[in-house]
């Protein structure tokens, strides 16, 4: 079984459990999956992320970067909420599958809680492959709720050594979008799945209703203000005018001056810090970023529950989540811009995390032109 086929089966399973969540109390349905293996996706050799091409689906209302021309796959699925058509566009390159697709739920699904639908989609994917959910986090796209998930697939004849399934799911009105990356563990490439996820774009999405967003009333980014730091060379959205402090910090490479702009509310804090990297510490960017991540976890006496490499233009970075013993969630992005380290930080109690558009806060960080 090629990963192309596996990806499509996962997409169908995701829809099944999502729709089951949309119609609680209804016995679980199973899709009637065609037994024939669909035609293989594009088999191009463009493995460099710089060579990817943008694919657009007018019917689906989205576009995405893919490493090869995708094949379209359609499958009717009988679900607890009614009949749903799964539409996926999948490209397979050197054994790794990249794809995106969508399904329109029946009207009855609109009455369901969006979080329950997304969690049902997550459970459907994991159950279909007897996989284990390793990581998940709430995300948002154009004001609509989403869920990013990582599932580990056990080793077998089809997936020697096991495989990793990574996906971003978005519920836009009654339409469920899935952006999926499936690779053998030995072939997984963070630059590839990050490029795939970051490139997904909705074309003229409808304005979400107040119930569509995972952000609580009064905590939407539309109420935040733009903070501009001429000294730091950046702008970012913050919930209030921040308190700005500069202090010295002794490090193994020498003393650094750390400037922090932090806005703190009753139950959360958001901010940005920056400092120059001492010349003695200059070296491999990955090592410097990893040190920053590990230092944050040690400082908080917490554990890193997820991390992934990211980029800000051409500049390297890392995004990670630390859980503290007191059940606080510290989410951060670090960027190494020439000889300067930027930290974009968000701290909130675990039970309140889904009330905030953390992804939107991170994405609002922009470097000023020099």
Which features would summarize this protein structure in a list?
370 residues; alpha+beta; Protein Transport Mog1p, Chain A; 2 domains; 7-stranded antiparallel sheet; 5 helices; 18% helix; 44% strand
Notes on the structure:
With 370 residues, the chain is an alpha+beta fold. The protein has 2 domains: 3-202, Protein Transport Mog1p, Chain A, CATH 3.40.1000.10; 221-367, Mog1/PsbP, alpha/beta/alpha sandwich (Protein Transport Mog1p, Chain A), CATH 3.40.1000. The protein is 18% helix and 44% strand. The chain has 5 helices and 20 strands. The protein has helices at 3-22, 114-128, 190-199, 285-300, 358-363, and strands at residues 53-57, 62-66, 71-79, 82-93, 96-104, 132-141, 144-153, 163-172, 175-184, 201-202, 225-229, 234-238, 243-251, 254-264, 269-276, 303-312, 315-323, 328-337, 340-349, 366-367. The strands form 4 sheets. It has a 7-stranded antiparallel β-sheet with strand order 3-4-5-9-8-7-6, sandwiched between helices. Helix 1 packs antiparallel against helix 2 (114-128). The chain starts with a helix and ends with a strand. Mean pLDDT is 80; it is low at 12-17, 22-46 and 210-218.
Q: Helices and strands in order, then pairings?
A:
Layout: H1 3-22, E1 53-57, E2 62-66, E3 71-79, E4 82-93, E5 96-104, H2 114-128, E6 132-141, E7 144-153, E8 163-172, E9 175-184, H3 190-199, E10 201-202, E11 225-229, E12 234-238, E13 243-251, E14 254-264, E15 269-276, H4 285-300, E16 303-312, E17 315-323, E18 328-337, E19 340-349, H5 358-363, E20 366-367
Antiparallel strand pairs: 1-2, 2-10, 3-4, 4-5, 5-9, 6-7, 7-8, 8-9, 11-12, 12-20, 13-14, 14-15, 15-19, 16-17, 17-18, 18-19
Helix pairs in contact: 1-2
